């Protein structure tokens, strides 16, 4: 089954790829590796803002991380990369806007990690960093970036 069919089976519609908010490009391909810049969480067109451990629940954080994962896929497509070319999700970096005593960053990041496994199966399993930060661009609750191996295309 192709990835587009898998997305349909999962009931997933990718969002419109967000424009960069500063001086960078969303995706850079070097050889067969796609580097996807940090993506912010948009749900129903609205940016998910706030801080875990304060005004954002674990479940809301996980949904935000999943939304970042969806935006990563949308950015690949927007860059002209067919999702069937994804050979492996190599690494995700998850940044969680949280209070100083918050320790569930890995659970928040699972929102993006589980999405990648659901969509790509074993090729979606990846290395990962999940870190807490005191602030993110535009007040976002979560930001996720990615390193993705591509097949020749």
TrEMBL record:
Biological classification of the source: Bacteria, Pseudomonadati, Pseudomonadota, Alphaproteobacteria, Sphingomonadales
Protein name stated in the entry: Endoribonuclease
Gene3D superfamilies: RutC-like
UniProt cross-references to InterPro entries, sorted A to Z: Endoribo_LPSP/chorism_mut-like, RutC-like_sf
Pfam family, one: YjgF_endoribonc
Domain Endoribonuclease L-PSP/chorismate mutase-like: start-end pairs: 4-141
Originating organism: Aurantiacibacter marinus
């Amino acid at each position: 089954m192709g990835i587009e069919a898998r997305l349909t089976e999962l009931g997933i519609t990718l969002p419109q790829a967000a424009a960069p908010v500063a001086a960078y490009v969303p995706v850079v391909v070097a050889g067969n590796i796609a580097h996807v810049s940090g993506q912010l969480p948009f749900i129903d067109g609205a940016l998910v803002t706030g801080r875990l451990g304060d005004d954002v629940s674990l479940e809301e954080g996980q949904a935000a991380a999943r939304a970042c994962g969806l935006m990563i896929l949308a950015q690949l497509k927007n860059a002209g990369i067919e999702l069937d070319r994804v050979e492996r999700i190599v690494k995700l970096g998850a940044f969680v806007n949280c209070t100083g005593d918050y320790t569930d960053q890995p659970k928040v990041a699972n929102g993006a990690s589980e999405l990648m496994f659901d969509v790509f199966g074993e090729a979606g399993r990846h290395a990962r960093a999940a870190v807490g930060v005191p602030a993110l661009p535009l007040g976002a609750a979560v930001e996720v970036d990615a390193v993705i191996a591509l097949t020749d295309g």
